[in-house]
Amino acid sequence: MEKTIAGKNITVNEEGYLTDFSQWDEKVGEALAAEASITLSARHWEIVKYLQNEHKNQVALSIRRIGKSGVTDIKEFYQLFPNAPLKTATKIAGIPKPASCI
Amino acid sequence: MMIILSKGTLENVYAAFVLANGARMEGIDAEIFFTFFGLEAVHKKKLEHLHVATVGNPAMHMPTMLGGLPGMEALASSMMKKEMEKIDMPDVHEFLDIMTASGVKLWACKLAMDMFHYKKEDLYEGVDAVITVGDFYKQSQGEGVHMLFV
Fold first, then answer.
1. Which residues of chain A have pLDDT under 70?
2. I want to staple A94 with a disulfide (CB 3.0 to 4.6 A). Which of A10, A18, A71, A90 is the partner?
3. What is the pLDDT of residues B11-38, one digit of tens each?
């Protein structure tokens, strides 16, 4: 379905995740973060970029992998993206929701 | 999500851990109350040596007599641990680290601690406190709280 994010028409799935990463830009990321009541700091951006890079390299994302990323640790990840951090952070990054149980 | 872990077999410990961690991943609060054999999952000297049950476990598809042979549990457990590593499942100690970093509260049952003569120092350092069943119920108060027994 179509949704207007940061003044752009964006295609998202029923959970609000972008289905076409080429429609993502930093303004879209900021708008999606605002929906989750998050103001993106430099630390947030580092993690968002890391997630996008991992997705590009087809790495399956999990909380465990975030902990081993060297970019952040699990505690900080939960502080920066409170309430379902992996789901929220991937949504902001414009990549699919990870199908991970860990 | 309030989870009571009363068993010390690998499959039950992982079930409780995946449920607790999974709750946190969804933004749901999670706490685990370790009681009876479940305490082994937070006992420093035992948590690395948990086994799957090869006897009395029909889903192992192994004759009971065979499952009872010496070393069989260790063999089945090491095979299972290898499979878990393949699918990126952490070991018990790392899983405890992940949970405490994620904000899962860990409680040890006072009665079971007394019964097994365990001291707080014997336990994984991330265990919040040794509490009574009454304390755990108090922790569980409030609307929409779910309790699971493993």
1. none
2. A18
3. 999 999 999 999 999 999 999 999 999 9
- Side-chain-facing half-sphere of B142: CA atoms under 13 Å: 11
The contact set of B with A (CB < 8 A) is 18, 21-22, 24-27, 88-90, 94, 98, 101-103
**Residue of chain B whose Cα is closest to the Cα of A81:** B27
Min Cα distance A99 → chain B (Å) is 12
Which of A62, A63, A65 lies closest to B102 in CB terms? A63
Summarize the confidence of residues B33-44 as an average pLDDT. Answer: 97
**A21: distance to nearest CA of chain B, Å?**
23
Per-residue pLDDT, B80: 87
For residue A46, the 8-state DSSP code is: H
